[in-house]
From TrEMBL:
It is found in: Membrane. This is Ubiquinol-cytochrome c reductase iron-sulfur subunit. It comes from Wenzhouxiangella sediminis. InterPro entries: Rieske_2Fe-2S (IPR017941), Rieske_2Fe-2S_sf (IPR036922), Rieske_Fe-S_prot (IPR014349), Rieske_Fe-S_prot_C (IPR005805), Ubiquinol_cyt_c_Rdtase_Fe-S-su (IPR006317). Keywords: 2Fe-2S, Disulfide bond, Electron transport, Iron, Iron-sulfur, Membrane, Metal-binding, Oxidoreductase, Transmembrane, Transmembrane helix, Transport. It comes from the Bacteria. It catalyses: a quinol + 2 Fe(III)-[cytochrome c](out) = a quinone + 2 Fe(II)-[cytochrome c](out) + 2 H(+)(out). The gene is petA. Its cofactor is [2Fe-2S] cluster. Coiled coil: none annotated.
Length: 201
């Protein structure tokens, strides 16, 4: 005659097997959580990559501000009417590698002589397209140590690349391309969103 212990042995084994399976499944699930979390962007990364809104009211004509978006320095220049006129002089265009900004490097709304949505506002990434140095802003005109007929613009002290006040690169310098225009759009003339392009209707 089978003892009570022998009869309950298969049931006990099934219970232990199910319990071990549950523990194993729980362990696998819990160990996967950190892996899944590491693959998702952190809150700070989401914020760092998010579009940012900039109020342009504080920028006077002829002045420029520096902001950071996605870890990149961004210049926003409010050009004067005189600066805009200088950008359209044919003598200057003859010195530029890509005067009409036709290269595929810039978004469609910046493929023009001013490389901007509004003529007076330039939004540009502040790194030289040669090796990533930050050029110096020289809005003044005339004879400079690096150019005898400087029209105003940006000069990179690292390897002497030159860009005009639209970020267009000069001929004969190490930088191969214009300064990069980041995606941006305006909600009104004095508010720009960096990180989003214009809404296409």
């Amino acid at each position: 005659m089978e003892s009570r212990t022998q009869k309950s042995e298969p049931a006990r084994r099934r219970f232990i097997g199910r319990a071990l399976g549950l523990v194993l499944a729980t362990g696998v699930t819990l160990s996967a959580i950190p892996l899944v979390r590491s693959l998702l962007p952190s809150r700070s990364r989401q914020i760092a990559g998010a579009p940012i809104e900039v109020d342009l009211d504080t920028i006077s004509p002829g002045e420029q501000i520096l902001i950071t978006w996605r870890g990149k320095p961004i210049w926003i220049l409010r050009r004067t009417s005189e600066m805009i006129q200088r950008l359209r002089i044919s003598d200057l265009e003859a010195r530029l590698r890509d005067p009409l900004s036709q290269q595929d490097q810039q978004p469609p709304y910046a493929r023009n002589d001013l490389r901007s949505i509004h003529p007076d506002i330039l939004v540009v990434i502040a790194t030289c397209t040669h090796l990533g140095c930050i050029p110096k802003f020289h809005p003044e005109t005339g004879q400079m140590g690096f150019d005898s007929e400087w029209p105003g613009g940006y000069f990179c002290p690292c390897h002497a690349s030159k860009f005009d006040l639209a970020g267009r690169v000069f001929k004969g310098v190490p930088a191969p391309l214009n300064l990069v225009i980041p995606p941006h759009r305006f909600t009104d003339h004095n508010t720009v969103i960096i990180g989003e392009g214009p809404v296409v209707e």
